[in-house]
Amino acid sequence: MAKGSFNIGDEVAITATVRRRVTEDRVSVSIPSYGQPHSIVETSKVMKGQTIELVGDVTCVDAEVGKVTVNLGVPVTVDAHTLRLVTRYVSPKRRRPKWTRRHDEAV
């Protein structure tokens, strides 16, 4: 598949830059192509300007505009080219229950 083609349910990563520490356990981060302020819980010692990776699941894909919505606790809509695929979603295999009879079996 081409780079940047995501499907709903895929696990993706966004590289964010630390802006400043808001409280003792929260950090304000800058997410590329996301025009809103965003803060995350981060108890480790991170410094201003350090990059961190945020991982979430794709909830909506708009291929015409090139935008993808990722659930990072709250929905965040970013450009598709700013994301990196972590794992592709694989739907569960549907199995027929053992207790059902086939139509061709004699009763």
Number of helices: 0
User: What's the β-strand tally?
Assistant: 7
**Percentage of residues in strands:** 35-45%
Mean pLDDT: 88
Shape: elongated
Give unreliable regions as ranges. none
- Computed Rg: 20 Å
Helix fraction bin: under 10%
Describe it for me?
The protein is mostly beta strands and 107 residues long. It is 0% helix and 44% strand. The protein is built from no helices and 7 strands. It has strands at 11-21, 26-30, 38-41, 51-62, 67-71, 75-79, 83-87. Strands 1, 2, 3, 4, 5, 6 and 7 form a 7-stranded antiparallel sheet that branches. The chain starts with 10 loop residues before the first strand and ends in a 20-residue tail after the last strand.
Topology, element by element:
Elements: E1 11-21, E2 26-30, E3 38-41, E4 51-62, E5 67-71, E6 75-79, E7 83-87
Antiparallel strand pairs: 1-2, 1-4, 1-7, 2-3, 4-5, 5-6
Can I get a quick summary?
The chain is mainly beta. It contains no helices and seven strands.
Comma- or semicolon-separated keywords:
mainly beta; elongated
